[in-house]
Amino acid sequence: MTEDTIEQNILAFADEALALTTGADYWTTPAAPGLGIRSVRLADGPHGLRVQNDENPDHLGLERSHPATCFPPAVTLASSWDVDLIERVGQALAVEARAAGVDVVLGPGLNIKRSPLCGRNFEYYSEDPLLAGMLAGAIARGLQSQGVAACLKHFAVNNQETDRLRVSANVDERALREIYLRAFQIAIEQSNAWTIMTSYNRINGTYASENSWLLKTVLRDEWGYDGVVVSDWGAVHDPVGSLKVGLDLRMPGRPGDERVRRAFAQDKLDIGVITETARRMQLLAERTAPQDASAEPDYHKHHALVREVAAKSSVLLTNDGALPVSISPGLRVAVIGELARKPRYQGAGSSRVNAIKVTNGLEALAARVEMAGGSLEFSRGYALDKVAQSTTLIEDAVAAAKRSDVTILFLGLPDSYEAEGSDRNSIELPANQLELLKALQAAAPKTIVAMSNGSAVTTASWRHSVNAIVEFWLTGQAHGEAIADILFGDVNPSGKLSETIPLRLEDTPAYLNFPGEHQNVTYGEGIYVGYRSYDARRQDVDHPFGHGLSYTTFDYSALEIDVRPLSDEIAVTARLLIRNTGTRRGAEVVQLYVHDHDDIVITPPIELRGWHKIELDPGATETVEIAVPRSRLEHWSSSLNAWIFGGGTVTIHVGSSSRDLRLSETVSLPGDPVTAPLTTWSTFGEWLDHPVAGQRLRSLFDARGGLKGRISDLLSDEVGKNSVRASPMVSIAEFPGVPIQPEDLEAICIEARTV
Ligand code: GLC
Question: For the chain, percent helix, then strand, then coil, each to nearest 5?
């Protein structure tokens, strides 16, 4: 049925159209046969299907769901910085969704990691909006390439779990635009995501599902979004008000709630609103229409993909040469840590997948070591629940370490430490694991740590007591193989941190304002999130944003910056040579950061504006090119209420991390100089410096006997003049001796604007 037949038939089938505004039940929407719209099925989650029997649904991952491939969660995918790889994950996830009759996958989650304490950080991509938006856009493209809708969530500013159904995130508009909404804007540009999910929380006092500024002004009017806006489960409190501002689908279904029908019957809900929703639901049903030859999932292939992605996303944090482990006959390996036997490979909550299979580190490592003629023993090391450490466990582990040539220590956060619905209160490892680390310091000749955690854990207190640390994050179901592939060198690690790992919780930007209190949280740090904050405060960190080592090394040279003309949507293109100066093939993520020397708005020291991942054979050299769209250089001006970039001096840095900038060049970019419109509240200095107003003001002073009195004295005083120039013009005009009337100011303002 075409769009205009929706219009023609909407009144005849008004009941059906009204029913479309909420689900038929927990996971499906009603059909509207009179409008030619079929029912669609929605299902979690971002890194694997969670489809349940409809008789006993839940949105917290409590009940069992049908077996599916458990892919690595966003925290891991993000560390790959590999758009193409992540798109492949989206395609595979969609094949499983299609086979299960699912039309909309409720993911990716792309909320910004404002604090490492957020319990759902494992489901999110980054502290940087460009990285988060590009990578979330990639998985969304992958999903939709198979005719399955992605659902960008949670729109917006859902950066904590504490009190998430009530809390108001109070954020200034610049931080909203440049940080918290920006990732969604980029993901929509990258994928035209067919659905987006409103978050539970309030934004500056108004619930996201009912927030006209968010859903109508920004999402619909400014971004031109044509997809379906679906609520988080239970996030709608005013179903009529939500519809009016652009929410289409309230979930879970509340077909018995008469409020929408009653409002429509009482002419309190316009037919146009219902028509728009019906149109968007029709578009969604058409976009996701089951394709004839939907491929049957190849779960072996998907498991292999999990293994590939998890290995390529692992981040080698430190390495004194202990890695990769070369397994020689007779090598004695000690594997220590309960997480080696009971792997932590995904997060908890609505995204939890009933994994088709899961491999653990102990079995995977044992198979490899023993096959190569080595020997391996295991020791638990610690318990996963929050009980105090046991001396027996420690003594046993120390003894095993002493008997080994190399100890592989599995550490990380057990399920209970981070989950949907709750936030952490520490960024340390569990106390019993720290105790074990201390005891092992003198025992093992060589210790390698394999970390499994969904959000940042500081290594500050123990990193120097071990030989190497690999952050595997949450690997998905191919846990054991991925870890073995990296530790034994079958795969050369190439992951980079998509979030800063701080030294101390107190150093984190949101420390004083997380998680807020009395249903309010203030984003006092503004745009200074993640590395933007640590850099601006010149703070040391445990491991910086963009950091990740390799088993090889790379050399950067011959940086050239091509400044494009103003008419070109690309502002600059950076070209450089990258050489693999090591002995192994490896991949490097070349990162491009920009320092904007502009003084119209304050800007962080550097901001990520592009990157390129490249794989090179030993000794090979290739040219890397990174183009920076002009729009990426813009900042939000709250005084002008607009995105601005006026050109001027910028420094382009390229490097291996935000704190390992290898080459830089400062250039001048063309641009339309941005000046704030002159008003009577502009400063006296802005008036005097304005090309029109300054001249008019001086001629009025001259014609009226000149500027006299205190203002004249101060203006001619070297120290006093700054305070006078910084005063609003309306205040200056009030002073005796200033021969200016309010009507003069208004007239000059009009004249100045017409220039
Ligand atoms: C949950 C989550 C959301 C999920 C939805 C359906 O509360 O916040 O991410 O997709 O409900 O389970």
Answer: 35, 20, 45
Task: Compute CA 560 distance to the chain's CA centroid, rounded to the nearest angstrom.
Answer: 30
Ligand 1 centroid to residue 35 C-alpha, Å:
29
Q: Which atom of ligand 1 has the smallest separation from the CA of 44?
A: 10
Using the mean position of ligand 1's atoms as its centre, give its distance from the Cα of residue 232 in Å: 6
Residues 633 and 645 sit within 8 Å (Cβ to Cβ): yes
CA distance 675 to 685: 13
Residue 671's pLDDT band, with cuts at 50, 70 and 90, is confident
Alpha helices in 499-607 (DSSP H): 531-536
Q: Ligand 1 center to residue 61 CA distance, Å?
A: 9
Give the model confidence (pLDDT) of 708-740 as tens digits. 888 888 888 888 899 899 999 999 999 999 999
C-beta of 59 in contact with ligand 1 (< 6 A): yes
CA nearest ligand 1 atom 12, residue: 59
Q: Is the pTM of this model over 0.85?
A: yes
**What residues are paired with 625 via a beta bridge?**
575
Reported confidence tier of residue 755, pLDDT bands at 50, 70, 90: low
Cα of 206 vs centre of ligand 1, distance in Å, is 20
How long a stretch of residues is the chain? 755
Maximum Cα interatomic distance, the chain, rounded to a whole number of Å: 101
Per the listing, tokens 């080696």 go with 340
44 lines ligand 1 (CB under 6 A): yes
Helix (H) or strand (E) holding 730: helix 729-732
User: Ligand 1 pocket, 232 CB below 6 A?
Assistant: yes
State whether the beta carbon of 182 lies less than 6 angstroms from ligand 1.
no
pLDDT digits (tens, 9 = 90+) for 632-651: 999 999 988 999 998 999 99
Q: In this structure, what token pair is assigned to residue 114? A: 């404002």
Catalytic residues: 232
